[in-house]
């Protein structure tokens, strides 16, 4: 025995000789068996463990070669050897029942007819538990054949997740099925433009379905899954557009106060798909007018120079044009004529017409009634 009498003292070593008490070697008669138990229960983690130890009255020396001897044997499984499986919880009566958020039928959602799956009983054996027989067959998950299910949870999306497409470009559609026998569920995709395709099962279109639209517009694309137990349909609305290249705001140069004026946005190309028009009329720039048509009518209540701006939004493209309108209380229009030989000196040249119109417009705006 070694130690010290106080924190400041040196270490002390005490040697005790027990040979006068333990003066013989132990024999078999000095040992007894001892059962490992938990409050009298001999089975721990499904195993009975029996140890050999010295009797309390034996005073003998075991020797350096002595080793602890233990024998074990498996126990029959009981309910105590099992815990609640995933999605189940213990009730007041001790039984494992499905939790409020768990649906046991969901375990076979990804199951394919002809295959098998483990159908839980609500219990699973505690990890490292070694019990056998007993109630093990009653509480262990059973392997069952996958049932045939009607299609449920059908989804239709584009590969990029967008609801717009460019005219003439490949569009890839993806079809997903949450529940049902995918191997025996046929899929029909109607592209909304008079074309449709049917596939024998969902797995055959894992890479998607490609389609090219040849006309702009809004198309209703539908997907239908069907097997012997039922069917389900889903859809999306795809906007097919083409690139907007140019816009021109057509508006009069001069308007009469409080008299209706028509404003028109001319597009090139003329058909580009779904278009939104945003108008800023006059000096009110904080409250634009939004329309789906390319024409609006407006009036100006004050004389002076007014600015009209239109923005056209088509797909990812936004273009803008602006015009100024001179508003007067009264003005008179005159029909201008040009000599017929202008085209002879400027054949097929449109620039001279634009130049002349700019000069005339500037002069008219500056002229007071």
UniProtKB/TrEMBL annotation:
Pfam families assigned to the protein according to its UniProt record, in alphabetical order: PKD, Sortilin_C
Predominant subcellular localization, coarse grouping: membrane
Membrane topology: Single-pass membrane protein
Domain PKD: 174-234
CDD domains linked to this entry: PKD
Keyword entries, A-Z: Receptor
Family annotation (SUPFAM superfamilies): PKD domain
UniProt subcellular location: Membrane
Top-level division of the source organism's lineage: Eukaryota
Keyword Aminoacyl-tRNA synthetase attributed: no
PANTHER family: SORTILIN RELATED, VPS10 DOMAIN-CONTAINING RECEPTOR SORCS1
Name used for this protein in its record: VPS10 domain-containing receptor SorCS1
Species this protein is from: Ilyodon furcidens
